[in-house]
Amino acid sequence: MYGFIVYLHIASVFIFLLGHGVSVHVAFVLRRERNLDRLCALLDLSLFSYLSMMIGLVLFLVTGIIAGIMGSHWGRWWIWTAVVLLVALFVFMSAYGAQYYSRIRIAVGLKPYRRTDQVVPLGPVVSEFEIGALLNSNRPMILLLVGVMGLLVILWLMMFKPF
Question: Containing domain of residue 7, as a range?
Fold first, then answer.
C-alpha cells in the first residue's frame, strides 16, 4: 500500500505542475503581448489553471503526509526540511506572484483574481506605457528560478533522504 500512496503522491505533483505550467507559460507570453483583449484572455487562462494547481497541491500534501506516516519518516530531518521549504516556497510564490498578476489585471481593467466568464465591463485601463512597464518585469524569471530550484531541492530530499 505504501508504494501506491507514493505513486499517488508523485502523480499529484504532476497534476500540480501541469496546472501551474499554464501560469508559467502565460507569464512569459504576457511579456510580448500588448493587445488589451489578448492580455485579458491570457490573464483569465492563467487564473483558470489555478484550480487544477490547487487540487494537485492539496492531493500531494495529503498523500505526502500519509506516505510520511506509513514510511515512518516523520522522525527524520529530511522530511521536515522538505515541508519547511515547501511552505516557504508557497508563501514566497503566492505573495510575489499574486502581487505581480494583480497589478497587471488591475492595469488592464480586470478585477484581481476574479474570473471573467461573461462579457464584463472593464474598469479603468492605464496607459500602454504603464502596462508595458509592468509586463517587462523580471518577476516571471525570478518566480521560475525560485520555483524550479526549490522543487529540485525538495526532489533531492525525497529521493536521497540525506539526514
Answer: 2-160
